[in-house]
């Protein structure tokens, strides 16, 4: 069975119904984040690469149909119309690593309605989670203010897959390494690590442990010094490093207690031993806030190892993301209920130097000097752009970050810029709202859908001349 | 490459060193949660089944060695001692579904030191995440007070693997179904689902959408009524259901707005239409707190669909879990630094009717009427107990839940019971602490390890007669 079964049941039910009704016209779904979580001044786009891999391989095979039949209590024949269905649509998306804001589409999928619907769950899952974690990691890099940050999160992420992503996403925003062996290998990242408290405890003394650890590997070592008494541990580490002629490239790791105060004492012990080039690694419950505190206090920490809180995105473990139908068969659509109103139409985001981003309709001309964020990355179900790795994503991130207002980059109480909406998008939204509301008051059959009016729809209406209510 | 590479680098480094030093004596690691998160009165054990599957298959193959060599910059020959290493140890664990408290071991691994160390990352990852999510799901079931709860979380979990677990763990504590097709199929759960707002929008009118949806499947349907105007949506749904002769088994779903008030209005509309057997499903940002509010307010909601906040365990997305060495080669060990002191020795937890749980040493006799929570589930690397499914886990959960004090089961401001420590465990902890501290003040060589004193160690010392300091 393929990844096609990694979906919510209703995607299958709806796709079945669409096929039965002959509703296979082109649909555009727009994926965006309604509002940023507190303490976020921006988001870093992520998840696109896994999504494109999924879509390129998407195919409902016979095993999938059997699973669908089994969980819905239908016969396989009932599900036959889904067999061999592939994703043949187009994807326009903001590349991984770019900075985006609330309301800006991260990607838009345009495909025959059943296809665009069936892939919803997987696409939302990947982009939501990965964008959340990438954005958290980015804040750690900002807080570290030039000091290396490494990922130690695998033991507490939500499964192994999430741990792999945390390592990949950290690298995307500039992490210097990861403890995750499989991820380091697969993504070409630096693998980093030290020793556990258990290692020290397994030996008769801390000194025996440090000596054995140094024996076990030829290069520089990092010694964990807080198993029993941190300052005594640093003294022991200093003695061992000196006696073995080590030092440059080596480090001690502090993993508990008042990391700032202990780093000062550790630095003094190391310096007094002539180990000025031996560095200090801090770990243990760190996130961007704790790193910020240490950096602002001038703690002599050289490297920050972040784990649990970053890998699970502890303060904002999900995004208020949506994958919303914005156009079907040439007709812009929207949802009206409660606070979750969505803007209709295929969109583009224009980044304007020195100005707020502009969310516009996809066929609008870019304002002077503006750069469109959404790029065609998939056409007819095939990648239209080469796979890009962490290095390219990091370049994009670095460039976008530099262009953000300082208040958006703040670790504490950041202020997220707001995108503006183009006049045509505002006008189309008002028109579609009026049209949709009119249909409820019984005037619907006299109203003309905005897509049928020249110059207001997100693209020309498919039918010539005035038309009645949509299908 | 096998799952052996899904690990932190330091596990590999330490295992290499242990093998080099000939330190392959039996080690016991204990996995426990130091403190419960706020708003938790208990934890539900989970993650054991995936852990046992992992351990039973654990084997470092040639590809793994190549990966280890690649990420550490060593030659494959340097890593040869790890090749073909399997897990040959024993696991004693609390079965999935049972209730545990702070400080109680969820599992203990006893194996040759390199093996017990190498599996740390994966074991911690699975148990920490799954116990967190199972505990969150359990609170939803408590809040729903007898109403069915279903899982809609897949679109926002931290990856697909985490989504699968959310579905499995929900079922373990009594969820009535999941939207996750693959998980429903693999775990034998009821697959549930309705329609999306996009479905309604894709049709010309809400009524067209409802009719098409009813056409698409033979049985009862659930209609999403809040795409445009909720009350009007319920009226339309009622009309369609009546005209099609449907009703019993059918439902309307409310996904936004003031769910309590809208449920009252929806109930009134349905009742007025003679659809007293048509139910109301509520969804949209629900967690145990929101469900509790609705239930306490007497909202006429029949089924609660929980998603994002539950699947990512939003208020406590990680546990303060630890996998700590408690004994090596017959010698109980402990960590002393800062607040993270660990109790030494192999342990057992005794559940005593009407009394607090007792955390004791593994070889202590159970108090009268007490039941030991940790069971031998793996011996010599093979399962010693059959795989148990969600149904058995749910039975254990239901029984344990009933035995908890009411304040532990409270959704708001729960009070978690605290386990007591046996006098022998307290005494051993004090002895090992004294012994370990003495080694730092230079008295170590005159001190005798507690394991060598009769009646205090967690099991008889391996050597006859008095011994000197450990290895």
Structure description:
The structure is a homodimer of 471-residue chains. Chain A is an alpha/beta fold and 471 residues long. The first copy, chain A, folds into two domains: 240 residues, nicotinate phosphoribosyltransferase; 107 residues, Aldolase class I (TIM Barrel). Chain A is 38% helix and 15% strand. Chain A has a seven-stranded antiparallel sheet. In chain A, strands 7-6-11-10-9-8 form a six-stranded parallel sheet. In chain A, strand 9, helix 11 and strand 10 form a beta-alpha-beta unit. In chain A, helix 5 packs parallel to helix 12. Chain A is elongated, with a radius of gyration of 27 Å. The C terminus of chain A is likely disordered. At the A-B interface, helix 1, helix 3, helix 5, helix 6 and helix 7 of A face helix 1, helix 3, helix 5, helix 6 and helix 7 of B.
Structure summary:
Chain A is built from 16 helices and 19 strands. Chain A has helices at residues 9-21, 48-57, 62-72, 113-118, 120-144, 160-172, 181-187, 197-202, 206-216, 230-243, 259-272, 288-296, 308-311, 390-403, 406-409, 423-440; strands spanning 26-33, 43-44, 90-93, 99-100, 107-112, 149-151, 177-178, 222-224, 251-254, 279-282, 303-306, 321-328, 331-332, 347-351, 358-361, 371-372, 375-379, 382-383, 420-421.
Key descriptive features of the protein:
471 residues; nicotinate phosphoribosyltransferase; six-stranded parallel β-sheet; 38% helix; 15% strand; alpha/beta; homodimer; seven-stranded antiparallel β-sheet; TIM Barrel; elongated
């Amino acid at each position: 069975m393929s990844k096609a079964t990694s979906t919510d049941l209703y995607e299958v039910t709806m796709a079945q119904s669409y096929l039965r009704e002959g509703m296979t016209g082109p649909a555009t779904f727009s994926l965006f984040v309604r509002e940023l979580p507190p303490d976020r001044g921006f988001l870093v786009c992520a998840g696109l690469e896994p999504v494109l891999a999924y879509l390129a391989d998407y195919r409902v095979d016979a095993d999938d149909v059997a699973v669908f039949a089994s969980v819905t209590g239908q016969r396989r024949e009932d599900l036959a119309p889904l067999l061999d269905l592939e994703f043949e649509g187009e994807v326009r998306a903001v590349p991984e690593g770019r900075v985006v804001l609330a309301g800006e589409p991260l990607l838009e999928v345009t495909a025959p309605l059943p296809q665009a619907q069936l892939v919803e769950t997987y696409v939302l899952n990947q982009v939501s989670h990965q964008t959340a974690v990438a954005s958290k990691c980015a804040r750690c890099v900002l807080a570290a203010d030039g000091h290396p940050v490494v990922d130690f999160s695998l033991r507490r992420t939500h499964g192994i897959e999430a741990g792999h992503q945390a390592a990949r996403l950290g690298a995307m925003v500039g992490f210097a390494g990861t403890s995750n062996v499989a991820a380091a290998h697969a993504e070409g990242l630096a693998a980093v690590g030290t020793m556990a408290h258990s290692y020290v405890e397994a030996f008769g003394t801390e000194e025996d442990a440090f000596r054995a650890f140094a024996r076990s590997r030829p290069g520089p070592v990092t010694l964990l010094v807080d198993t029993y008494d941190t300052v005594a541990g640093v003294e022991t580490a200093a003695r061992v490093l000196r006696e073995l002629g080590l030092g440059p490239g080596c480090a001690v790791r502090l993993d508990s207690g008042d990391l700032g105060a202990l780093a000062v004492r550790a630095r003094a012990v190391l310096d007094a031993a002539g180990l000025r080039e031996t560095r200090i690694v801090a770990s243990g419950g760190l996130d961007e806030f704790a790193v910020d505190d240490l950096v602002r206090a001038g703690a002599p920490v050289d490297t920050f190892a972040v784990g649990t809180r970053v890998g699970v995105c502890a303060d904002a473990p999900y995004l208020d993301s949506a994958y919303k139908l914005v156009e079907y068969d040439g007709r812009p659509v929207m949802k009206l209920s409660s606070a979750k109103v969505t803007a209709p139409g295929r969109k583009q985001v224009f980044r304007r130097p020195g100005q707020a981003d502009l969310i516009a309709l996809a066929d609008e001309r870019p304002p002077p000097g503006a750069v469109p964020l959404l790029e065609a990355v998939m056409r007819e179900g095939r990648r239209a752009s080469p796979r890009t790795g962490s290095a390219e994503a990091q370049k994009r991130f670095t460039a976008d970050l530099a262009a953000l207002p300082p208040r958006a980059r703040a670790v504490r109480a950041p202020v997220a810029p707001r995108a503006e909406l183009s006049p045509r998008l505002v006008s189309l939204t008002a028109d579609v709202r009026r049209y949709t509301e009119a249909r409820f008051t019984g005037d619907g059959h006299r109203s003309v859908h905005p897509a049928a009016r020249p110059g207001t729809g997100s693209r020309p209406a498919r039918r010539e001349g005035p038309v009645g209510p949509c299908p």
